[in-house]
Amino acid sequence: MKIMVAIKRVVDYAVKIRVKSDKTGVETQNVKMSMNPFCEIALEEALRIRESGLASEVVAVSMGPTQCVDTLRTGLAMGADRAIHVDTTAALYPLSVAKLLKALVDVEKPGLLILGKQAIDDDCNQTGQMVAGLLDWPQGTFASKVVLDKEKQVATVEREVDGGLETLCLDLPAVITTDLRLNQPRYATLPNIMKAKSKVIKKFTPQELNVEIKSDLEVVQVTEPPKRKAGVIVSFCGRADRQA
């Protein structure tokens, strides 16, 4: 079985976000970028499934400008077998990403598609659900535990819900989105980082995948949240006041 993992290049989680002066978006020039933490968890889970002998190949996929190749090389250094880059400078919203993923699934024919439950730059939490709908595949979102049964071709997903834990049994192929408690991603070793630099990354364009990039959404303005007001010191009440 082949596993496809979608990974996203985002502003590093440790960077203090700055809004552009014209309020059209977040400043990304000369800002450290890295793989979305939830995508790291998704890739780690795919690698563990492969290492357990339940999958034969892990394919990492990223979409966006040329710089996304650096993120893909991080995925290759972690252990992914191959990488695919959908090269586009257009603004990508969840539905567009879902359509591109569907097109890549049609090309690669994976038995499992794993994504992070959300990206830390927009927190949309929509792509996994959308691509499952487009593919007409069963989905297990917010997974905190994944168990595959190769003989029965099913995946058991334990997921966190408001009331506790819910267990789902999904027929493969399926879409799974990962939560924080699923695993602890590994660090890429220096030898693997060096090997990843020489690996070929396959490129596609949205036109080659017959996907039109468009959105009904328009970002009108991006502003910082209001600064927290200073606290108020409350005077201590004496015994007489408390008794009263």
UniProtKB/TrEMBL annotation:
<dbReference type="InterPro" id="IPR000049">
    <property type="entry name" value="ET-Flavoprotein_bsu_CS"/>
</dbReference>
<dbReference type="GO" id="GO:0005759">
    <property type="term" value="C:mitochondrial matrix"/>
</dbReference>
<dbReference type="Pfam" id="PF01012">
    <property type="entry name" value="ETF"/>
</dbReference>
<feature type="domain" description="Electron transfer flavoprotein alpha/beta-subunit N-terminal">
    <location>
        <begin position="23"/>
        <end position="213"/>
    </location>
</feature>
<dbReference type="GO" id="GO:0033539">
    <property type="term" value="P:fatty acid beta-oxidation using acyl-CoA dehydrogenase"/>
</dbReference>
<dbReference type="InterPro" id="IPR014729">
    <property type="entry name" value="Rossmann-like_a/b/a_fold"/>
</dbReference>
<keyword id="KW-0496">Mitochondrion</keyword>
<keyword id="KW-0813">Transport</keyword>
<dbReference type="InterPro" id="IPR014730">
    <property type="entry name" value="ETF_a/b_N"/>
</dbReference>
<dbReference type="GO" id="GO:0009063">
    <property type="term" value="P:amino acid catabolic process"/>
</dbReference>
<comment type="function">
    <text>The electron transfer flavoprotein serves as a specific electron acceptor for several dehydrogenases, including five acyl-CoA dehydrogenases, glutaryl-CoA and sarcosine dehydrogenase. It transfers the electrons to the main mitochondrial respiratory chain via ETF-ubiquinone oxidoreductase (ETF dehydrogenase).</text>
</comment>
<dbReference type="InterPro" id="IPR033948">
    <property type="entry name" value="ETF_beta_N"/>
</dbReference>
<dbReference type="InterPro" id="IPR012255">
    <property type="entry name" value="ETF_b"/>
</dbReference>
<comment type="subunit">
    <text>Heterodimer of an alpha and a beta subunit.</text>
</comment>
<keyword id="KW-0249">Electron transport</keyword>
<comment type="similarity">
    <text>Belongs to the ETF beta-subunit/FixA family.</text>
</comment>
<protein>
    <recommendedName>
        <fullName>Electron transfer flavoprotein subunit beta</fullName>
    </recommendedName>
</protein>
<dbReference type="GO" id="GO:0009055">
    <property type="term" value="F:electron transfer activity"/>
</dbReference>
